[in-house]
Amino acid sequence: MSAPTLSDIDDAMEMQSIPVGYRDTPQDEEDDEDTFSDDDEIDELGMIAASTPQPNQKDPALKRHSYVTYIFVGLAAIVLLVEVLRRKEGSLSLNARTKATSDDLSTTSSGTTGDNLIIEFTVANLRTNSANCSHVGKMLQCIPQHNNATNKFRIQLHESWAPIGVKRFQELTVANFWDDARIFRVVPNFVSQFGISSYPDVQKYYDSLGNLKDDKVIGSNKRGTLTFATAGRNTRTTQLFINTADNKFLDKQGFSPIGEVLPPGDGYGSMDVVDEMYSKYGEDPDQGMIKEEGKEYLEEKYPLLSYFVTAVFV
Questions:
Q1: S-S: 97 plus which of 161, 172, 202, 236, CB 3.0-4.6 Å?
Q2: Nearest to 314 by CA among 162, 159, 116
Q3: Which of 35-44, 134-143, 179-188 has the lowest mean pLDDT?
C-alpha cells in the first residue's frame, strides 16, 4: 500500500469547493428594458439564490468528497504512526545492543575473569531431522543428531591468548549483539562464520568504532577454537569463526584464536552442536546485503540459516 501524498490530499480538498452557480435567463427580443418590473427582479434574485447550495443543505457530492478526504488523511496518519514506531523500535534495539559499560564487563559472571570467561550459546535452525525439533514460543529448538543433550554449547575465552579480541567479544556479548545473529558462512570441515548483526543500525554502530589492532598469535587454529576474521593487518571488527577442522596453516597468516569450544557438560553439547549448523547455503549469503538489510534479507533469501537465540555468560 502506497502512502497518500500531499497533492492527493489537496486534490480531495479542492473537490469539496463547489462553484456558486448562476442562472442565465435570456430575455425575449420583444421585451423592452423599460418593461422589466421590480417583481421580475425579485423573481430573478430568487432563482439565483435557488441555484446556490446553502450551508444547511445536504449536498450528496459534498458529503462524498468529505469522506474521501477523511480517508486520505486517516491513511496518512496511519503511515506516519507506523514509521514513528519503526524508528522507535530501531532506536531501542540499537541502545539495547550497543551499551556495554565497564561495570557491565566486570560483572559478566560470578567470579569469572581472565581465562575463566565462559559464554553459553543457544542455537536455532540446526541441521537435523524435523522429528528432533520442537517450537518453544516462536523459537525452533532442535536436538542435534549426534547428541542427546540440547541445542546449546559453551565457549571459554582466553584473555592470555588475545586480550584485545577477548575484550571486544566480551563487549559484544554484554550488549546482546549475538541475539538473532546468523551463522552465515558454513563450510564443512573448515569454518563456521558469524558476527554480522541482524539489525543494520547496530552493525553500523560497531563498524563506526573502527578496527581492532591485531593480537599476537599465541593459540593455534585447531578444531574448536574461536578466531576473529580479518581482511589483512589490523582489520578485525565483529566477525569471527569457529574452526571445524585443524586449520593450523592460519596461524602464520595472523589469525589469533581468542577462545575454544568446551567439552559437553550437563545440559549443553560441544562441537557436535557446531557441526549441526546449517551448511547447504555454503558461501552464498552476501555480507554486504546482511549489513544493509539485516533480518529482512536473511529471512527472505536464507530462512534455514542457523542463528543464535541467546549468548550469555555463565
A1: 202
A2: 116
A3: 35-44
Return the sign of the alpha-carbon dihedral for residues 38, 43, 44, 46.
positive
pLDDT attached to residue 76: 74
Closest CA to 166 of 208, 122, 111, 228: 228
Distances (CA, A) of 40 to 22, 29, 34, 49: 16, 16, 12, 14
Tens of pLDDT along 205-226? 999 999 999 999 999 999 999 9
Beta-strand runs (E) in the chain: 117-124, 133-136, 139-142, 152-157, 185-187, 191-194, 225-228, 240-243, 257-261, 307-313
Distance CA 293, CA 199 (A): 8
Indicate the DSSP class of residue 122: E
Coil, strand or helix: which one is 45?
Answer: helix
* C-alpha cell belonging to residue 20: 456558486
Total-model pTM: 0.66
Nearest-angstrom CA–CA distance, 242 and 194: 9
Residue with cell 430575455: 27
Grid cell locating 13: 480538498
Nearest-10 Cα torsion for 242, 247, 252, 253: -50
Q: What pLDDT band is residue 62 in, cutting at 50, 70 and 90?
A: low
Residue 289, pLDDT score: 98
Q: Which amino acid is at 257?
A: P
